[in-house]
Task: structure prediction
Amino acid sequence: MKKSTGFRLIAVLAALLLWQIVSMAVGLDMLLASPIQVAHRLLTVWHEKSFLSTILFSMKRVFLGFILAFSLGTVLGVLSGRFKAAEYLLWPYVVAFKSVPIASFIILCLIWLSSKQLTVFITFLIAFPVIYGNVLEGIKSTDHDLKEMCSLFKVPWRRRFLYVYLPSVKPYLISACSVAAGMAWKAGVAAEIIGVVKGSIGEKLYEAKIYLQSADLFAWTIIIILLSVIMEKAFLFLLKRAFVEVEKL
Amino acid sequence: MKDIVLSGISKAFDGKAVISDISLMIKAGETVCIRGRSGIGKTTLLRIIAGLTQPDSGIVSGVPERIAFVFQEDRLCEEFSALSNVRLVTGRAMPEETILKHLGELELAGSSMTPVRDFSGGMKRRVALARAVCAETELLILDEPFKGLDFELKQRAITYIKKYSVGKIVICVTHDPSEAELMGGRVIDLDAI
Result:
């Protein structure tokens, strides 16, 4: 085991110990469940009939919103990198997505759309500017010498994109997806809580708040973290594989 | 193919004249080696001929539409193989076997599928040469093309260029008189102009 891993493990154990002490000091499970109670809840929660359907409900929508943000963010980022006019045209939307409070969008969405579509929409709104901005930055930072070489040799745009722009965008896109995947889950579940979306993880958290079940709250939070990490790792794995395949061309 | 004619070319950077009133003619199919001390404007002259830099005054005419250029820097796509770097400019117009033959002539056959980021400086130089030659253009511009090659590889590279540049205009910048001699053709000394 690496020394740094050992230190991290000790830090986690110390944090759990502190949590246990504080929970014992508070003395009220409904306010602060202990780590042992949360662990117990985690072991029982998946036995519930609605567990899988709840997870699938949220996962499907968060993933859909993320994929939409990834596809549109990548395409529009590339377009804006190539055509300055596209960058100017998209600028107000990107600024709005970045700066308008997420709660305002959630309320707006609840007026316009059904609550079931809320998660997809909010996840998209949060992930899109991150992916778009990074792809645009990647395109802009493409090596000038390589661009000049391509112009001189009159390399068609498709090949130019695959060989010159894509490798430049790669680190930006990977880092953007890593950040956006985590943000997508946070925003998606927040939207589900505010919209009290039936059958979602957000609804479970809302119920935990209503019935003061802090063990449930922590258990579902841990599940959200796990789902977020799994989605991020799986997506990045596939993305990196796709880049490897392109580089083999 | 036309002759390339440069008339009264001048270029300054930040008020400092790099090229002053240069006029010369390069005949269709001719090989020309340009020599001169560092900073005299050899690369700038090549860039003006290729249309990459605009002269402050003067006219360039007769430059064909398709040009191949070996830049001072290799300008390769580092993540891609030697084969892919050549294919970038040829597309599917040149069969893979032909590209591999070209790479083989420059002793790169065994490394054709390796990403060029793993190549030595000399190997990268040869990929840049193969890319320019395979582009199949009427004008081949070479800016210190043999930099980083040992004598044997240099000779091989020159033989390769001469073999595939018959009928083309070749403009080569070099510091080394022996390279100019091996390349053959006319030598233009910018110091003397």
